[in-house]
Design brief:
32% of the residues lie in helices and 21% in strands. Helix 1 crosses helix 3 and helix 9 runs parallel beside helix 10. The chain starts with a strand and ends with a strand. The structure holds 2-succinylbenzoate (OSB) and magnesium ion (MG). 2-succinylbenzoate (OSB) binds next to loops.
Length: 374
C-alpha cells in the first residue's frame, strides 16, 4: 500500500472535569490526530503528547516538529506491507515514542482495514485464543480538593458500574485518602498512582498502606528509575507496577530481570506503538507478569486502539479505558459506553479501529492543521 498523504491536526478538547495529578492540573486536553491515506483507505492515529511535559518530555508541539520534519517525510511514498515495516523506517529517530505511536497506530488501522479485519483480530493473529470481545476496565480519579469529595467521586463511579478504582496520590495526599477509601468501599479493587512523586525515603508512607489490600501501587519513584523500585519492592506488601519507566520491551526485560515490579502498565504510546506494546505483552506473558492497558485521556480515536490491544490474552487486569462520558462531552469519533453489568467496554468489530471520525467536530477543536504529500 503506497502511503500517499498524511493530515496532521493539533487539537484541544475541554475535559468534563479537571484532571489533577502529582505533575499538574488539566482542564483541557491537547493531542495530535493523524490521518494516513493509502490506496483509498484512511488510517487514524492519536499522539497523546499534551500541552506540557509533565508526564513525558514530549509535548504536542515537540511531537508536531518530530512528526512533520522527520517521521512523516520518512514514511510518505513508502510501500507499506505490514505495520511492523514502519518500526524500521522510524528507527533513525531516537526517543519520541509518543510521536512515533501516532503513525504506528494509523498503519495498524489501515492495514487491518485492507485485510478486512478489526484491529483486535489483526493484533490477535499470533494467539490461538484470539481476541476477547469485551475488556475489563476501571476508572482513574484525579486528586480532589478534599477526602469527602474523593469519596463522593468514587461512589459516583461505582454507581456507574466501574469495578476498579485508581486514585492519584502525591506527598501529603496519600495514606489518609487510601485508608478512607478502603474503609468506605470494602472489597472494591483500589489502586494508587503516584506518577513518580516520591523517593526511597518515603518507604514508610507505602509501608503504612501495607494492610489496605490494594491492587497495586503504580510508579511511586522517579520516572526513569528501575533500580530504586527494585529496592522498594521487597519492603512493601502492595504489588508494584511500573508506568513511566518502561519505554520498550527491552526496558521491561531489564525491569523484570532486577525485580523492579510485579505488574506493568502497557501504554502503547509510551512504548512507540502497538507493535512494541505487543512485544511487552508477550514478554510479560511468558514471565507470568500481569499487564493492563494504560490510558492518557484518549479521544475515541485512541480509545478504540486501546480496546483492541486490551483484547489480547495477556491483559488480565482492568485497563485505564473508561467510557467517553468520563472524559468528553463531545468527542471527535465514535463514543464508547460502559457495560455496567461486568465493568467492561465492548471491543469495536468493524474493520481497523472500527470507528467513525466526526470530521466536523474534529475541525471545530483543531488549533492547527497541515497536509503532507511527497
Ligand atoms: O499515569 O496513568 C497515568 C492520564 C494522563 C497521564 C498519565 C496517566 C493518566 C491516567 C488517566 O491515569 C488514565 C485514563 O486515560 O483514564
Ligand atoms: Mg500512571
Amino acid at each position: 500500500m503506497k502511503i500517499e498523504r498524511i493530515d496532521l491536526y493539533h487539537v484541544s478538547m475541554p475535559l468534563v472535569s479537571p484532571f489533577v495529578t502529582s505533575f499538574g492540573r488539566q482542564l483541557e486536553r491537547q493531542c495530535l490526530i493523524l490521518a494516513l491515506h493509502a490506496e483509498g483507505l484512511t488510517g487514524w492515529g492519536e499522539c497523546v503528547a499534551n500541552s506540557t511535559p509533565g508526564y513525558s518530555y514530549e509535548t504536542a508541539v515537540t511531537a508536531w516538529h518530530v512528526l512533520s520534519d522527520f517521521l512523516i517525510p520518512a514514511v510518505l511514498d513508502q510501500d507499506l506491507q505490514e505495520p511492523e515495516d514502519i518500526v524500521d523506517w522510524m528507527g533513525f529517530v531516537r526517543g519520541h515514542p509518543l510521536a512515533k505511536a501516532a503513525l504506528d497506530q494509523a498503519v495498524w488501522d489501515v492495514t487491518a482495514q485492507r485485510d478486512g479485519l478489526s484491529l483486535a483480530q489483526k493484533l490477535a493473529m499470533p494467539y490461538a485464543e484470539g481476541a476477547r470481545d469485551r475488556v475489563k476496565v476501571g476508572v482513574s480519579i484525579g486528586i480532589q480538593p478534599t477526602i469527602a469529595q474523593t469519596m463522593a467521586v468514587i461512589e459516583k463511579h461505582l454507581e456507574e458500574g466501574y469495578g476498579r478504582i485508581k486514585l492519584k496520590i502525591k506527598p501529603g495526599h496519600d495514606v489518609e485518602i487510601a485508608r478512607s477509601a478502603r474503609a468506605a468501599f470494602a472489597g472494591v479493587p483500589i489502586m494508587l498512582d503516584a506518577n513518580s512523586a516520591y523517593t526511597l525515603e518515603d518507604t514508610p508512607v507505602f509501608q503504612a498502606m501495607d494492610d489496605l489490600d490494594l491492587l497495586m501501587l503504580e510508579q511511586p519513584l522517579a520516572y526513569e528509575d528501575i533500580y530504586d523500585h527494585s529496592r522498594l519492592r521487597p519492603q512493601i506488601e502492595t504489588p508494584l507496577c511500573l508506568d513511566e519507566s518502561i519505554h520498550s520491551a527491552d526496558h521491561a526485560r531489564f525491569a523484570l530481570a532486577i525485580g523492579a515490579c510485579d505488574i506493568i502498565n502497557i501504554k502503547p504510546s509510551r512504548v512507540s506503538g502497538w507493535t512494541e506494546a505487543r512485544k511487552v505483552h508477550d514478554l510479560c506473558r511468558e514471565g507470568g507478569v500481569p499487564v493492563w492497558v494504560g490510558g492518557m485521556l484518549e479521544t475515541g480515536v485512541g480509545r478504540a486502539a486501546q480496546l483492541a490491544l486490551a483484547s489480547l490474552p495477556g491483559f488480565t487486569l482492568p485497563g485505564d479505558i473508561s467510557a467517553t462520558d468520563r472524559y468528553y462531552e463531545r468527542d471527535i469519533a465514535t463514543r464508547f459506553s460502559l457495560n455496567r453489568e461486568d465493568s467492561t467496554i465492548t471491543v469495536p468489530v468493524g474493520p481497523g479501529l472500527g470507528i467513525e471520525v466526526d470530521e466536523e467536530q474534529l475541525a471545530a477543536v483543531t488549533l492547527r492543521q497541515q497536509t503532507f504529500t511527497q
